[in-house]
Amino acid sequence: MNTKLLFLAMIAFLMAFQACEKDEEEDNDSTETVQDSYFNIEGAQFQSGAMPSESGGPEIANLSGNDNVLAGGGNPVSIETSGDASEVIIGVEGADGYFTYPVSSMKSVEDLVLIYLLFTQEIEGTFTIVFALVDVDGNVGTYQSIEVQTVEAGTGQFQVNLSWDQPNDMDLHLIEPNGEEIYYSNSLSDNGGFLDIDSNAGCSIDGTNSENITYGDTAIVEAGTYTVIVDRWSNCNVTGTTNFSVTATLNGELVTGNNPYYGSWAPDYTNDQYVEVMTIDINSSMMKNYRSVLQFDYGKFEKKRNLSPQKTQ
């Protein structure tokens, strides 16, 4: 081989090597991480890379959580442990990374260990969430999973979500700064705030276990104080404790304050009792598309009839 051919061969080799490196970088950049693409968990540690293999650790005795979830919503997951579990691994099949959460840090109600998953506003379709217990020596138990389906719901500029874990009728109420209340009997406010998901209405169980209020891109997010109220309208003969979470998201970020809110109701709790869970103070500088209510064209929105079944005590 003469010098010219050798030189051309070296150039071709270098170009092919650089192309492979570029493809590998693009593949790495496109990898979805659990934290960025699916959910977060308060107090958990995020680990990059693949989830560790099973190695004879403690077993999950029982796992329960909603299999219908909303973008920007939550999912209270109950785990009954067995053995000497020190932490839980939580991940998503096919996604990079996973969370580890100390068992001692979890919120416990009636000896059930609870993990509140807080979903991003970008989730869509069907995906599988996996869980495993780990002991103090790092031994990993058998992975168990919940396959979840994303229910179509609005996120928008401002979103308030209520999610719970029992087949009963919980209601989400939002009182705007002007005093108008958004709830099942007034699902669309003059400002455009909309209760687009009203689950298990009148004990007609649909399995979503979530209610959602959204302000779309053309709605008015009025400056002032918003009050979030939760009402267990009816327990619908459920015998277990109801665990729930409330989240408020503005321009894609959780609003600071008592947010998220976590709570629970015992089965014998009196039905139809209103509980104020948070207040949210919003000013015009916090909103990307803020317009004064005085500039709002009130003919732009038409009040929609609430399609939920008529509630009777």
Automatic annotation (TrEMBL):
Q: Which domain of life is it from?
A: Bacteria
Signal sequence span per UniProt?
Answer: 1-21
- Alphabetic keyword roster: Signal
Please state what the protein is called: Uncharacterized protein
What organism is listed for this UniProt entry?
Salinivirga cyanobacteriivorans
